[in-house]
Structure formats: C-alpha cells, structure tokens
C-alpha cells in the first residue's frame, strides 16, 4: 500500500473476524498512509480517532456470526460421528488391489511399475505397507 491508497472491503468480516485483528489491520493501513473503506459500514472514517473504537465494535459484532458457524459445524460433525459417518477421502485402491500391490512389492517389483499398472502415483504405492500393517 502507498499513501493515498484506499482498501475497500464489501463487509467487515471480509477484513477480519476478530476485533483485535481488525484494529491491527487498520493500524497497518494507517501506517502506510492509506485509508480503509467498508462498504457495509459507510459511516466509518479511518481519518478520525473514533474509527478505532467504531471498528472495534463493528469487528466484535462481526465475530458473533462466525462463532455461531463454528459451533454449528462442530455440532454437525459430532452428530455425524455418533452416526458412524466416515470422514476423509475415500481410498483410491480397494482391499484386493492393496493386497495385490503388497504381493508385487514383496516380489521386488519397482513402485513406479506398479503405480503405472494401477493408475496411481508412485508415492501411493510406496505408502502401501503402512496401510496394510505389514510391518
């Protein structure tokens, strides 16, 4: 940022979701000689000393919706866990494929050759013994 620049944001929570972070960002903008304009809060004037207080209050208000979102998603994950929902990415290879790969690796076939045969990366093949608990 250079002196005279203006930082534009559509809403307060797009700048920061914590009031202290918002004040730190405002300080950095002011220190560079730039200004800040929030389209959802047109009355905020970064050239006045009151802007710090107003931005802190606005930032504090913006924090609450974010906090509710985090609480709701945490609750949803807990309900999913109770229903035994599996989280994460599905494995690229099935059990039979992994067993075949383990056998081919035990025979000394190079990981690159096995990877080409199964259409996966070489690192997927090199990690295979960990998945099968062969060690």
Low-confidence stretches: none
Radius of gyration: 27 Å
Could you describe the largest sheet, including whether it forms a barrel? 2 strands, parallel
Provide the helix percentage.
Answer: 55-70%
Structural class: mainly alpha
The whole-number mean of residue pLDDT values reads: 82
Note the run of SSEs as H and E. EHHEHHHHH
- How would the global form be characterised? elongated
Amount of beta strand:
5-15%
Structural account:
The protein is mainly α and about 140 residues long. About 60% of the residues lie in helices and about 5% in strands. The protein has 7 helices and 2 strands, in the order βααβααααα. The chain has helices at about 10-15, 20-30, 50-80, 95-105, 110-120, 120-125, 130, and strands spanning about 5-10, 35-40. Strands 1-2 form a two-stranded parallel sheet. The protein is elongated, with a radius of gyration of 27 Å. The protein starts with 5 loop residues before the first strand and ends with a helix. The model has no long low-confidence stretch (mean pLDDT about 80).
List the helices and strands and how they pair.
Layout: E1 6-9, H1 12-15, H2 19-31, E2 35-38, H3 50-82, H4 95-106, H5 111-118, H6 122-126, H7 128-132
Helix pairs in contact: 2-3
């Amino acid at each position: 940022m250079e002196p005279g620049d203006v930082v534009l944001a559509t809403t307060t929570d797009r700048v920061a979701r914590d009031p202290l972070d918002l004040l730190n960002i405002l300080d950095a903008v002011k220190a560079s000689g730039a200004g800040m304009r929030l389209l959802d809060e047109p009355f905020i004037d970064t050239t006045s000393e009151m802007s710090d207080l107003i931005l802190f209050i606005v930032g504090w208000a913006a924090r609450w919706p974010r906090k509710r979102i985090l609480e709701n998603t945490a609750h949803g994950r807990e309900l999913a866990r109770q229903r035994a929902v599996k989280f994460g990415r599905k494995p690229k290879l099935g059990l039979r494929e992994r067993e075949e790969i383990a056998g081919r690796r035990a025979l000394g076939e190079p990981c690159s050759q096995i990877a080409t045969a199964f259409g996966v990366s070489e690192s997927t093949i090199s990690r295979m013994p960990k998945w099968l608990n062969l060690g």
